[in-house]
Amino acid sequence: MSKFNIIAPGQETIPLEIKKNFINRLKSQGIQNNLVLNIMEQVPRHLFVEPALKKRAYDDDALPIGFSQTISSPYIVAKMTELIIENDNMQNVLEVGTGSGYQSAILALLFKYVTTMERIKPLHERTQKYLKEMGFKNIKCVFDDGFKGYSGRGPYDAIIMTASPTVIPKFLLSQLKPTGRMILPLNTNGKQKLFRIKNTKNGILKKEIDDVLFVPMLEGTNK
Known about the structure:
The protein is of the alpha/beta class. The chain has a domain at 75-211: Rossmann fold (3-Layer(aba) Sandwich). 26% of the residues lie in helices and 27% in strands. It contains 6 helices and 9 strands, in the order ααββαβαβαββαβββ. It has helices at 16-28, 34-42, 74-84, 102-108, 121-133, 170-174; strands spanning 63-66, 69-71, 92-96, 113-118, 139-143, 156-161, 176-188, 191-200, 203-211. A 7-stranded mixed sheet has the order 5-4-3-6-7-8-9. A hairpin with a 2-residue loop joins strand 1 (63-66) and strand 2 (69-71). The longest helix is centred in the first third of the chain and has 13 residues, at 16-28. The protein is globular, with a radius of gyration of 16 Å.
């Protein structure tokens, strides 16, 4: 796990009461992993939202970040992070859908190496610059089509997807380690469900977790 040493221009501290309520709400929603709760408490979500929305940063809402994209609600980020953890297998993770970089920052405190992909070039460039300014050294930002994954740093212990495809991308499955796992929102018949995929010696295991709502996953890139 990387040491958190955020360096951000104009950083504001979070009032203790807001932070306390934020974590207590996550606990009441069923988040149980203390490591996840500690990291959610450390990473200042208000630095990853639009300035006009900072007062809503610790509400349990998805918020717009521009380019028709959103930052997921704190509960969804915490839940997907909790599902991705396997204490003996936390070296190398791929995130598909960088967005604002909030989930990337959370992963950077859990995994030794984080690769995160974004298909919208201006969003990729903005977030890559911001994560560097914050002091993250173990995050590699890639501009490319997430359906292809990024074999250059694979295979991965884990893959987390923050946009919803209609099928599990085969290239991503092929980049999982033999014991790897994947968390994704899968759109089946117009309804999205969060799934945890586990690669085992007996094949792929697929477990349905919950109803979710993510932006759709699109092929190609947008410059």
